[in-house]
Amino acid sequence: MVIEATDATGRVPEPAMRALRAALPRIALELQRRLGAGGEARAKIVGDEEMASLHEKHAGVPGTTDVLTFDLREGHAGAHGPSGLMDADIVVCWDEALRESKARGHAPEHEALLYIVHACLHCLGHDDHDDDDAARMHDAENAVLEAAGVGRIFG
User: Fold this and answer.
1) Where are the alpha helices (H) located in the chain, listed in sequence order?
2) Which CATH number characterizes residue 86's domain?
């Protein structure tokens, strides 16, 4: 599995972008090891304005959000679908990562990594629409991030 990230804002500090990119292969390996994930995901880091536009266009919800996931596989069948491979575009809001990381007391690139893991888990069949599912998903996020050397980010 391969996960790549690009900064469309030009505002992510280079050390943060290096740290984020360095963690992605470890995260991909953990997703592969734990969930049999394969394929690729491409994360684009944007600001509030672009995220708000995409959020309204694709979800019908005004305002910004932390992450949007576009599962490009036919049928969106999850990890055990027809091809068994991920093909996802992920949009991460850097402004939201800055706000949340400040409130939670960790690096914004770690918050952005949380969003990327969250998006990948959605593509791999996890859901967070009720409290029990959300708790399981957050546990899985933290397990992947801890095993990848980033540490526990959510909660």
Assistant:
1) 14-35, 48-59, 94-104, 108-123, 131-147
2) 3.40.390.30
Residue whose structure tokens are 């505002």: 11
Alpha carbons 75 and 21: distance in angstroms, whole number: 29
Residue 155 domain-assigned? Answer: no
In tens digits, what is the pLDDT along the chain, a chain of 155 residues? 999 999 999 999 999 999 999 999 999 999 999 988 999 999 999 999 999 999 999 999 999 999 999 999 876 554 444 345 899 999 999 999 999 999 999 999 999 999 999 999 999 989 888 999 999 999 999 999 999 999 999 87
Sheet with 67-71, edge to edge strand ranges: 2-7, 39-46, 86-93, 67-71
Rounded to whole angstroms, the Cα distance separating 30 from 77 reads 20
Question: Would the pTM count as exceeding 0.70?
Answer: yes
**Number of domains present in the structure of the chain:** 1
Indicate the length of the chain as a whole number.
155
Answer yes or no: is 116 within a domain: yes
Which range of residues forms the domain containing residue 62?
A: 2-147
Question: Does 152 fall in a domain?
Answer: no
Lookup: tokens for 5: 């990230």
**DSSP conformational letter for 10:** S
